[in-house]
């Protein structure tokens, strides 16, 4: 009975995580598009100086990946500290044993899904800028 309840709870939480990743993917794509639109002239200047489309793609991917990795580290750290603090209060008030273990499979799955989202979202957005001619980018078209 307890095992079935845990499996049902895990399924519900996994569905919530998948839904949140879907929402965050669309938000990420919009953020990258806005960033590329703001930096379109700088990208045009870099391409005019000799940077090819692959270099622009790598530059954008590194920037996006560094932002996501810092968000993952900060989010995991703050979340873990808040979890330990909350569970400590529950432990003090209810005097029940609490397990502070981390589900590393879930953390790894979330980490890999975040990196795949960054890679796919950046590729999707940078392909639109890469198709434009350098002169069109510099003119602001």
From TrEMBL:
N-terminal signal peptide: none
A GO-annotated cellular component: plasma membrane
ABC3 transporter permease C-terminal domain mapped to chain residues: 15-131
Membrane topology classification: Multi-pass membrane protein
Primary localisation category: membrane
Localisation: Cell membrane
Pfam families referenced in this protein's UniProt entry, alphabetically: FtsX (PF02687)
Cited InterPro entries: ABC3_permease_C
Superkingdom of the source species: Eukaryota
Keywords: Cell membrane, Membrane, Transmembrane, Transmembrane helix
Listed transmembrane segments: 67-90, 102-122
Protein's recorded name: ABC3 transporter permease C-terminal domain-containing protein
Organism this protein belongs to: Strombidium rassoulzadegani
């Amino acid at each position: 009975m307890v095992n079935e309840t845990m499996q049902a709870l895990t399924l519900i939480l996994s569905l919530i995580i998948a839904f949140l990743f879907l929402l965050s993917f669309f938000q990420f794509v919009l953020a990258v598009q806005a960033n590329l639109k703001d930096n379109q002239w700088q990208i045009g200047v870099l391409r005019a100086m000799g940077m090819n489309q692959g270099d622009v793609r790598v530059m954008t991917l590194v920037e996006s990946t560094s932002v996501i990795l810092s968000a993952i580290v900060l989010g995991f750290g703050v979340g873990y500290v808040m979890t330990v603090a909350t569970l400590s209060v529950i432990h003090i008030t209810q005097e029940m044993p609490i397990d502070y273990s981390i589900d590393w499979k879930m953390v790894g799955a979330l980490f890999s899904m975040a990196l795949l989202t960054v890679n796919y979202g950046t590729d999707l957005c940078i392909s639109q800028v890469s198709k434009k001619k350098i002169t069109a980018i510099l003119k602001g078209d």
